[in-house]
Amino acid sequence: MNSVTKKWLFLKASSVVLIPLMVWFILNLVSVFDKDYIEVVSFFSKQPSKLLVSLLLIFAYFFSALSISEVFEDYIQDEKFKNVANKALNIFAIIMPLITIIILFNLTV
Amino acid sequence: MENKNPLSPHIQIYRWHISSLVSISHRITGIINIIAITVICFWIASLLLGEASYEFTKIFLQSIFGKFIILALIWSFSFQILSEIRHLIMDLGYGFELKMTNITGLLVIFGSFILTVLIYLI
Questions:
Q1: pTM for the complete prediction?
Q2: How far is B76 from chain A (nearest CA, A)?
Q3: What Cα–Cα distance (Å) separates residue B15 from each residue in B9, B20, B21, B98, B121?
Q4: Given 2.60.120.200, 3.90.45.10, 1.20.1300.10, 3.40.50.150, which CATH number is that of B13-121?
Q5: Contact A9, A66 (CB under 8 A)
Q6: Do A30 and B74 touch (CB under 8 A)?
Q7: Over 70: is that where the pLDDT of B26 sits?
Q8: Residue B26 C-alpha, separation from nearest chain A C-alpha, in angstroms
Q9: Which domains, from first to last, does chain A contain?
Q10: Which residue, A37, A61, A69, B82, is most buried by CB atoms nearer than 10 A?
């Protein structure tokens, strides 16, 4: 299996996982976004929110990194610039969810 | 080594169809969603600063503008969800006929607005 096929399969697999996670998240976001501090913290610090938000972040950044790299492939001709952009994208897609998940698991009411 | 692969032509040279509108909107909402998720990461991080620091965020989110942003975000997520389901169905080999691509494209566009209203009202 070549790398492009693997990339496509990862993209599709992550999108299958992301759809129910996004539905769950927007349903909960609507009910919590304008609430008091205690209610917001209690939402993010209880289970299964911690686990589901963590999974959403991991899969959303993974999916985005793969999709945005496709956009780079379509519109950036300079190979060096494209490589730098892809590396920056991948680093961002690892660091951002990692830090947020650490914060999430340290959040208590 | 120099890359000789052709780039995608600029979108303005195509004649607009429902499929192209859904396709470009899928990319735009994808970028909006990842920016929104990044803002949500900062929102979660801001909770560590305590209740007093959260007051400004709460006032913003309870304002008309804050509610509009959340509504727009729900639409963007809804569009991405429906468009992604459309892509997955097409990946299975269904819905490639011109009439069907137009119908599913319209379903994604109108469905995303209906889904947004339903989710906001629940």
A1: 0.88
A2: 10
A3: 12, 9, 10, 15, 37
A4: 1.20.1300.10
A5: no
A6: yes
A7: yes
A8: 11
A9: 3-106 (1.20.1300.10)
A10: A61
Residue A49's SS3 state is helix
> Which residues of chain B are within 8 Å of residue A77 when distances are taken between CB atoms?
3, 7
pLDDT at A65 over 70: yes
**Complex prediction ipTM:** 0.89
Query: Over the stretch A9-30, which tens digit does the pLDDT of each residue have?
Result: 999 999 999 999 999 999 999 9
**pLDDT of B12 higher than 80:** no
Domain ranges of chain B: 13-121
The token duo for A14 is 């992550």
Q: Does B81 touch chain A (CB under 8 A)?
A: yes
What span, in angstroms and rounded, lies between the C-alpha atoms of B53 and B59?
Answer: 11
Contacts of A99 in chain B (CB under 8 A): 41, 45
Q: How many residues does chain A have?
A: 109
Residues sharing a CB contact under 8 Å with residue B92, sequence separation 6 or more, in sequence order = none
Each residue of B75-121: pLDDT tens digit? 999 999 999 999 999 999 998 888 999 999 999 999 999 999 999 88
pLDDT of residue A55: 96
